[in-house]
Amino acid sequence: MTSRRTLLAAAILAARPAFAAFPDRPIRVIVPFAPGGNADVVARLLQPRLQERLGQPVVVENRPGAGGSVGAQAVARATPDGYTLLIGSNGPLSVNPVVQARLPYDAVRDFAPIGMAMQVPHCLVVQASARQRRLAELVAASRAQADGLGIGTAGVASATHLSMEAFAAASGARLLHVPYRGGGAAVPDFIAGNIPLLFTEFSTALPLHRAGQGRILAIASATRLPALPDVPTMIEEGTAGFLAGSYVGLLAPAGIPAEAMAALGAAMAAIVREEDFRNRMVAMGGEVASATLATPAGFAALIAEDLERSRVAAQKAGIRPE
Roughly what angle, to the nearest 10 degrees, separates helices 38-54 and 275-283? Predict the structure, then answer.
């Protein structure tokens, strides 16, 4: 009897399909924006490194629309098997949930954060000829204007708009919002002198600063950046605890198998430790993710914190979901 049972068990096991370890086929990474922005650049830098570490082709697909919501929705509704991933950032994860009504996904429940790759702090840029050399001087100058000083951002309810409103509330600056269709779209007007200030990503402001076409007055980061060690943070300049920036990281649909999450998480953690990858992030004006933020738990906590900051900023600015 025992031998029959043993033979039967062996036959059942032999009949079962063999499941290959993750991954056993190509992986698709969706960028919810058009080519050229920070999220797309990070995706292109991650792509060959993920391929090498996971041993399978990794295909990057741009799917823009609705401030990143179209691409994010596609990933949220994808099969949660680890083969469809999202390059996530403030737009679809921290800003859209606050400013878009009837969002077709839940930014917290529908995604499994894998790890952050980098964060680009926001900064305040003045004209190169501006007399103000300190943040307090700029705040005073703005309050001396009845309507405030004009300041360009990437658009109404964009990440930089919400950060700008949070800065105005924290510092007491009187600022007149001038929205554009993207951070880059504001640059020509700024260079031409049509707007006196920009509140933008450090990666957008750095070329202006280096070319003498503008001057970064202060950066909304925790510490000074290696790229411009002489430029102070907003905290140093008196805006206590003020931090603002745009993050970029990797996420999967919620419910991803533990095996897939472990493989993807290990690959992400290893990539952010690579010297070449870190150098690329710094060169484009970013801060490389810390060991904590490159983990699922650390990245999830950052997204939750940034989402709450966006809610507070939107309320102060009187922005309601549309």
Answer: 170
